[in-house]
Fold:
Amino acid sequence: MVNKQEIQSKMMQAVEAVRGTNPMAGSITNTVTINLVANAQLAVGGSAAMVYLPDEAEFLAKAGGAMCINVGTLLPIYEETLPYVAKVLHETGKPWVLDPVAVGIGSLRTKLLQQFKAYKPTIIRGNASEIIALAGLWGLDGGTEQSNVRGVDSTDSVSGAKVAAIALAKWTGGAVAVSGETDLVTDGSIMAVSYGGSHFMEKITGAGCSLGGVAAVYATATSPFIAALTATTVYNVAGKRAELKVDGPGSFQVQFIDELYKTTAEDIANNSLDIEEVSFL
Structure:
């Protein structure tokens, strides 16, 4: 039976643990969004480090508490770096977040994302179309062979990605976070829907990418499901509050970082949240 109060308590503990220990969660991330990813990680109490070379990625994988891999803007070196560091993370038991940005675009991206299946990411974070397409690429329930990703944007609804998200979580043994107007987080047995955020998040570059980085920060301190849910929820709280104080996307991005920094553990735990047991698959 799902105990909502226990989940909220664990979210508060994760927030307080991160702010008390300043854990490092390295990233190999979208070059368009590096600045926002790092600043978001710092704002919630983590430590950021960005690399792209294989040996430096291995160092971060072993030295940090977790890592985020985002395939947004691929460089040729990533054909060597990404599967190598994913293997290191898997073999050392370090938590890691996969953001399968633009899955279905290009042969290298497809090859890399296919290789990640064996290394079972701790948390997968993406929009609905990315989650459905990744499940399809991995041959799991709820997936489709044809990607409906439009560049980095989703054309599917969050509710439409529910089966794929559950299947991915069951395969990895971790958690999946589906971002959209409302956000879904599941570990395959429990499903949570988190509310809030802002329409301005669609008008800045890196809201989703930075969420993956923040999920990695929380993954240093708690279980995959609680880490993904806490990251998703702090974004919903901060986004909602930032929107009330600005009138455009440029000022929103600055205010959003401020609100990430100011949001308390209690604010996160008390945000609007629906939780239920998964009753299928």
